[in-house]
Amino acid sequence: MKNIKAIYVDCCAPSLSRNLPFRIKSDWEISLIIRSTYFSKEINGFSPTLYCDPLTESYYRELGILDCFDEVFPILSEHPEEYNPSIFWAGGKFEAILHCDSPFIVMDLDLELRNKIDLSDCEVFCSHVELIDSNACLFYPDPKDLDKSGYFKNLGIEFGNKALNTSLLYFKDINLSKEYAKIAMGYMKSIKQINPLLENNCYILLAEQRLLSDFCESKGIIPNTLISGNYIPSRAVIGDKEPPFENSNVSEVAKYFLHIWGHKIYLDSDPLLGKDLYERLLFSSPGYIRDKIEKAVENNYSFVQ
Fold first, then answer.
1. Can you tell me the distance from the alpha carbon of 261 to that of 98, in angstroms, rounded to the nearest whole number?
2. CA distances from 162 to 1, 174, 206 (A)
3. SS3 for 210-225, per residue?
4. Domain architecture of the chain: domains with CATH
5. Residue 214 in contact with residue 158, Cβ under 8 Å?
6. Whole-structure pTM over 0.90, yes or no?
7. What would the pLDDT profile of 26-56 be if each residue is shown by its tens digit?
């Protein structure tokens, strides 16, 4: 477990490509970044590493949180030309994977892991498995509808009914991670026009999560997951009475793993929910971390006002 980097990716390209201003983070987002990097280092011994663009690096410096990371690589473009960042908003992850030359685990900015994980016997490790059924067409439509140029077909890739959630992602073999990232980047570059009738997120979910499942299967790899069992996306979308996770240890994992995920929509739309989350994160933090959070949030006020 030594010398593993915890890679975090943040870039402003998705906002700027939509002609929106640079996105200022909410208080709870700042709290999670500080807490997540702290727990990564203190509990798992990971080395927090940030991949970002120069503008985001400057913002982190003004917040006073750049020192949460052992290394910072401001190599991402604020205006990437090879792919559409408004559709492929997680494209920076693949660029980070292709750049990193030492063992790493990619971690989303909106999560924290407060428990030690053992990666020693893992070929691939990710958050959980998602099972795609006929009701999951909102986010997982027929791949053919997302790949009109036949990019994946030409590579001999045929998608099954599973996807792997990549909020956490580790490859034992770095070369395999780069092979996966190159395939994903190739697909992103091949998309010149999207279907306006489809949910935008489904394009990146194909490139990132559904591709990963097929990639592992083609290599004979059975991925290890933090959360056992299957997540059924359609149950969450259609409001099924059955819980979205089946045969899962999710209740146990929830004691030490926080991932905001799609709940961000509710936090953004209801300031009271965001304030409540921020306060719970703040007051459950160790003293030093609590001080750092409060100082960063205070620094952020100059951008909000």
1. 25
2. 28, 23, 11
3. HHHHHHHHHCCCCCEE
4. 5-304 (3.90.550)
5. yes
6. yes
7. 999 999 999 999 999 999 999 999 999 999 9
